[in-house]
Predict the structure.
Amino acid sequence: MKKREALLALTFTSILFGVNYAVAKGLMPVFVTPRQLMIFRLAGTLLVLWPLYLLKGAEKVNPSDRLRMILSGLTGIAINQVLFFEGLSRTSPVDTSIIHTLSPMMVMLFAMMFIGERLTWQKAAGMITGALGALWLVILAGANSRAEGTLTGNLLILLNITSYSLYLVVVKPLMARYSALTVMTHTFSWGSLFVVPYVIKDIPSLTFSHFTTNAWLALFYVVFLTTLTAFSLTAWALRHVSATAAGYFIYLQPVIASLVAWIAYDETLTLQKAGAAMLVFSGVFLVIYRPKAGASGGLKAIRADG
């Protein structure tokens, strides 16, 4: 029963993330700049996390883990957030969601580099296939003269998911020693400190006079539903299903993002983008697929930050 509930929770988080691409895109740049949206997301998250963390009883962090907490904040929050919102403001929700499906493959690559995960021919073939799909998508963006800046946006999103995938490898040992609330509170706090110098210049120009009801609802969605609700549900679900099983749910995001973008922006998933997506999907499948029953991939990426 718990497994079924966990799968439903993961399906719901995939829907939240898939819709988020279009919702966040709709806020920029009409209502907020990418930097201002980062301010809202990080400040709103911290305002919820710290009271919960203190109310539960602040868990003491071992000094030897402090550097890892800082690196997690840098890669998973600061660099990740900056590149995601700056990239999404320049490219489409569909392109962003497709590139984000590279996350499981990149996590495996970093695991090989830093913790000795074994490279097999299957994984190597998957990495090459997925990389070709991502490259195809980036080239398509560069060839699209109607969407100036899309190439830059896609490259920023590619760097965004690279940073987030590195974060998943860095943060994994912390998840084994501390509660999810402790890790999220400390990493978001450190990440916010790194982001402040980048976003501070956009604070004086922040105004709410032009905000509509829909804009406020979209802001609430990005700050609370995408960040707190989705991440909390994912953490709970991982108590009952393997990370490998959870990793497959990232494939729902491009489907949902394409549907929402088609409704909201009249954007269609072209045959070329579909072909690039299939290469990416195939590559990730080869990387994370394990034929032996019972094998679990503790380092497989679960979700891209969006």
Observations:
- The chain has one domain: 2-288.
- Residues 16 and 226 are 6 Å apart (CA to CA).
